[in-house]
Amino acid sequence: MLTAKPLTAAASSVTEVLDAQPAELRQGEPSTSGRADHAAQHPSIARAAATLSAGEVVAIPTETVYGLAANALSAEAVGRVYAAKNRPADNPLIIHISSLEMLASLYPPGWSLPPVYEPLVRDLWPGPLTILVPRSPLVPDAVTCGLPTMAVRMPAHPVALAVIAACGFPLAAPSANSSGRPSPTIARHVFADLGGRIPLIIDGGPCTCGVESTVLDGLRSPPAILRPGGVTREQLLGYPGLGALQVYRRDFVDAALEAAPTTPGMKYRHYSPTAPVLLLDPNPQPPTAASSSNGHQPSLSAGQRHQQAGQHSGTAATAAEVEAPAADLAARLRHGAEALLAELAAAEPPAASDTADGGGARRFALLRTSLDDVASGPQAPSAGSAPGGHANGNGQATDAAPAPALPYEVYEYVLGHVSRPADVAAELFAALRHVDEQGVEAIVVEGVQEGGAGAAVMNRLRKAASRVVHV
């Protein structure tokens, strides 16, 4: 059934929101063989395909996050994506396809899929994995930013597959948010950022993965994950040709990639709410340039040594290695959060805050990963108090005479437990947006270890954070 939701955009143009629930489109395994004519008859899918065929943009759900889609073969249509998002012009887009035949139609003349990709496409598509391939002559510079490669994936969400198949052409689709904001995982997030700036949003329900796709460059030697995402390094390591798989910034850096990234998420600050994000990072602190040159390494806790061994051994950490320090890790995160909240409450409030004139309790948010057996989602606000007086920029008390205790409120949101990073990933962007809507002064986030889905979580949080505190 076609449903236009009664949402009003602040801008002069109108954004329509139509429902297309996955259960209405497809049963059983997704088809990757070509056009899905029965799905194309769904009125919301037909409207989306017609809008995209006319050169406009449409926000569509995927299993990772909502994407802002346009015809990947039209420079003019893709330009509307950049304009709606206010996206930097040197940040390339990912091309989304609905079938292997559509992928083959984009190959450069004489090129075929290399062996390193064949089993990945067979086993992990449709799904949150993007691969780099040589650029098609059909794809305009606006998609690839003039680079010789293009990023391609086949989404697993039935709505996304149905829209692409109904169009009959690939779609270029970054996340459907204002550039730099947390990625949208429900249609309401899209409307909050882009309402009045785009003509159509297809509401397919919440995204299940919650973070963007993994980007794999199998053309380089050794192959490398350029952006961690919904498919983990541990999942990829067992495939032929990926035994020496590297992760960008963990195993290597590349000045050329920094200057001209081949995939989104590498160059610019991303995923940031309005309130500053302060990240509690339980992972080993990278050595500074000075410590690298003199041979001294920072001291690590037992839990950090367990994880570092798993990260650099060339194989995934065992379950025992990950779970053994879990209690220690949760305790470190809880203590770090308490200390950081007390520091924030004792410091001078920002001039623009509601409490800068001394009126009312200050508000902070705490996104938690240290609590087990607590359901994910927002919790009831709690009250706290910090010692009177103010602190300096290092959180150290000044010599000023102490004042009465300063009240503050903490809006807690449980992301999941640190031992289950995939749960944390699914909640992350929704949580950042939710607590930001409460008008908090700052957002403290308890991080996770980088094994498995934790690599994608920490990648996004480090991009969002204005300050990182190692615990």
TrEMBL record:
It is found in: Cytoplasm. Residues 375-385 have a biased composition (Low complexity). GO terms for biological process: regulation of translational fidelity; tRNA processing. It catalyses: L-threonine + hydrogencarbonate + ATP = L-threonylcarbamoyladenylate + diphosphate + H2O. The keyword Phosphoprotein does not apply. Its EC number is 2.7.7.87. Residues 18-42, 276-320, 373-400 are annotated as: Disordered. Residues 288-314 have a biased composition (Polar residues). Residues 42-231 form the YrdC-like domain. Belongs to the SUA5 family. Required for the formation of a threonylcarbamoyl group on adenosine at position 37 (t(6)A37) in tRNAs that read codons beginning with adenine. Likely catalyzes the conversion of L-threonine, HCO(3)(-)/CO(2) and ATP to give threonylcarbamoyl-AMP (TC-AMP) as the acyladenylate intermediate, with the release of diphosphate. Required for normal translation, by ensuring translation fidelity at the level of codon recognition, appropriate translation initiation selection and maintenance of reading frame. Also involved in telomere replication. NCBIfam families: L-threonylcarbamoyladenylate synthase (TIGR00057). This is Threonylcarbamoyl-AMP synthase.
